[in-house]
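Run folding on both entries below.
>entry_1
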Amino acid sequence: MKTAILLELARGRTARQPVVVVTRLRDGAQSLHRAGGQQGDLELAGPVLAEIRERCLHDRSGRLQTDPGLFMRCYTPAHRLIIVGAVHIAQALAPAAVMAGFDVTIVDPRTAFATAERFPDITLTHEWPDIALETLAPDAQTAVVALSHDPKLDDPALIAALASPAFYVGALGSRRTHAARLERFATREITGTERLRAPVGLDLGGRSAGEIAIAIIAEIIQTRYRPG
């Protein structure tokens, strides 16, 4: 791999951007693809480039179907889940998300709730959600879920998440609670509310904390692979 491609690969990984390196098998010629475009020895376009983008979305390395002489290697940062509210549903959701391959962070300034005893091996932050979200900087590999059921915690987090490239933004609460939330956001002229998944999670019919957690992680995974 040439130095220029190695350096660009390192920059992409530092910026938590998906990066793809395509190699032509017969002679080793390579190109690198990331959000800013492509560079290298290969100039790829049309169906080949479309397949690269589609397979990068699903983190699927391998030979291209559109050109079997090309091999693509995906370098995709781990997806993240930011959970606002160290509540009982979060205790079930956090380990489920870890099992699904997400890096999980719990955000809750209430130190009595966000403890290592309740969330073993999970990253915790006790900053207020708006400050925490600014620091965590949700990107296109990040999902944000607000579970505290307290507007003082949920609203600032959701507003920050909706202004970010986060691929999933969800909030706990009934339809009535969500309608009231939308009214508050409309008063503040918050945009992007059509992206907000609420009530959060797939409608599986479950009611327990564990069942709700499964419905949430299922919807997050569905959105990750079927963004439409």
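>entry_2
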Amino acid sequence: MTEQSKKTEFVIAHLTDLHPDGGVAFAHGVALARDARAQLVSFNAGDGAQARPMPNTGLLLESWGGAADSVPHTAVAHTCCEDPVDTILDGLRPMEPELIVAGTHQWSGFSRAIHESVSESVAVQGLAPTLVLPIGEPGFVDQDTGEVELDKILIPVGDDQETAAAVNSLTVLLERLGIEDIDLYLLRVGGDEVPESLLTPEGPGWRWHRETRSGKPVDGIVAACEELDCDLVVMASRGQDGFLDIIRGTQTQQVMRKIAAGLLIIPV
């Protein structure tokens, strides 16, 4: 029997910089692990855990009115490489997480040139579906109550493989979380209308809508997210492909830098 066949638990990996309260990414990791009945692993790339403790899951759960031990939680500090992205990938691979949760600063221009986004770089590596949350924005988990408030999700439509990957991974997660009564928007930017034949799995109270926008893909996605007031955007990604992607970032990375909502990146 292989190690993969032995693995039965649903693992959520939370990337932490050891901020005392854990921040928005920690709150989302805890709430999602609770609702998905998953194991939460807080992961720090480095030896900073010797100086500062990992965020405390029990205290947060109790502040939400739950039991301190209701989420199985382990903390891992890992060192191996000079590059923090390589260190994170090296530490996460053996865990085989079903979901990675991370926060990111939305720097632009000169600030982005001098501050590399580690979370952004990890997200496009395709290790696992990765939920990236802009630091400074509330996300879709109420930090005072722990309630998951997912009402509207935007899914940009690419080619058949990308769209199938995004829809399949998203619906598996929604089912795992027990999400009901939600509007799901399939978006096509700068092309034909979203085909009626596109996969739209049925779920309790799941309402599928088709949207079109003109213009450039990134601008259309950002505008639709704002106009529809979406809580989450789901995009499939093949990672960086070529020199221009390295310089400008992929479309997924460009969207990540501009939206106030969380972005769930699905590897293809």
